[in-house]
Write a structure and sequence with these properties.
With 189 residues, the chain is an all-alpha fold. 52% of the residues lie in helices and 0% in strands. The radius of gyration is 25 Å and the shape is extended.
């Protein structure tokens, strides 16, 4: 339901499925997109309840969604247009290059804590975390810029350096190829 209201895959900015699983078990849910109709929002929250007995079954879900749809059809055009415009403006940034969109894996998780519903304060704290995206001007100093994430930074620097080497090698191969092509063209004149 969240994917329908947002147009995005939930938790798209998370690299590791383990993090997503643990957050969901601990009651964290995706932040509901502003402009989502209240009835739909409430139904989505019902579906997210940790207790399966509190979740609507498929028939109840179908009935409630049809009712919401019917109510939205009866909405005035201006109100409907403003809701659509609001949703468009507040869409989460799309990231189609994320491999989770194209692949699926089977994971065997063991010794997980008992699932629970997060309280509103926990949800708010989760969605309002401050992320430090400080990137130094000199890539060689990247590893020194953030001591707390030394391990992650080191991996990123290695990836950048490997990519830089590969690009340089491709450029050299391209120049050699262009030189050879140019020489062949001159010889064939």
């Amino acid at each position: 339901m969240w994917k329908i209201s947002s147009g995005q895959t939930p938790f798209i900015n998370y690299e590791h499925e383990n993090d997503i699983v643990m957050n969901i078990i601990n009651g964290i849910r995706p932040k509901i997109v502003p402009g989502t109709p209240l009835e739909y929002k409430n139904l989505m929250k019902e579906c997210w309840d940790v207790d399966p007995l509190k979740r609507p079954d498929a028939d109840a879900l179908d009935t409630k969604i049809r009712k919401i749809s019917l109510n939205n059809r009866n909405m005035s055009y201006e109100l409907f247009k403003s809701e659509i415009d609001n949703l468009e403006m507040n869409k989460v940034e799309k990231n189609y290059t994320n491999s989770r969109l194209f692949t699926s894996k089977i994971h065997n998780f063991e010794n997980l804590p008992k699932p629970r519903n997060a309280i509103e304060e926990e949800q708010e704290a989760f969605h309002s975390k401050f992320y430090n995206f400080n990137i130094p001007d000199n890539i060689n100093n990247f590893n020194k810029s953030n001591k707390q994430n030394n391990n992650k930074s080191s991996k990123i620097v290695t990836i950048f350096r490997d990519d830089e080497k590969e690009i340089t090698q491709q450029q050299i191969k391209g120049k050699v190829l262009m030189s050879t092509v140019g020489e062949n063209l001159r010889n064939n004149k």
